[in-house]
Amino acid sequence: MSDIFHEIDEELKADRARLLMRRYGGYVIGGVIAIILLVAGRQGYMYWDQAHREDLANRYQAAVLSDDMVGNLSELTQESGGYGMLSRFATAAELAKTDPQAAEAMYLALAEDSDLAGIYQDVARVLSVVHAANTTTVEERLDRLAQIDKASSPWAALVSEWQIALYLEKGDMASAQRSLQEWKADGQALTPRANARRQLLEQALGGNK
Fold first, then answer.
1. Structural domain contains residue 44
2. Would residue 193 count as lying in a domain?
3. Full domain range(s) for residue 27
């Protein structure tokens, strides 16, 4: 007798299972397919991304080694991400040899690009001063350097050095002395070359005043 009840119970379970599958089976199958597609899509994107980055690296290297670096980097400068930024910096550096105004404009564009990390914006701003065209005034260059927070920037020593040089260029010895004392007080470690340049600036300003 118990076998009959057991068989009936099993059939009821089977019927419920078939009913559930008819009602929700489509959703289950759809969910499984969605998971498979997501995994396949992720793997496909990873493969594409790796291939894309390798292609960018090869194109960048070829452009840098070519006779027309600026022209061959032009497409890469439109790329987002690291190689796009690197191409813009490399283009500006190459332009600085023959067209300071174009180089300065590109460095300023990098300095104002909010998509870049602050460290890259700051160095672009410094380079816009280093490679400024003759038409750019001392005050304009000083204003750019003043936008950099020397308390947190890794380029603080370079900023101080150029501020002193610009103050000397305009004949403002008091401001040059003040910047020198601030530079000495910030405690930032210097490379041997930077330390040597600072010593030369101290001598130019009359020693430790």
1. yes
2. no
3. 1-65
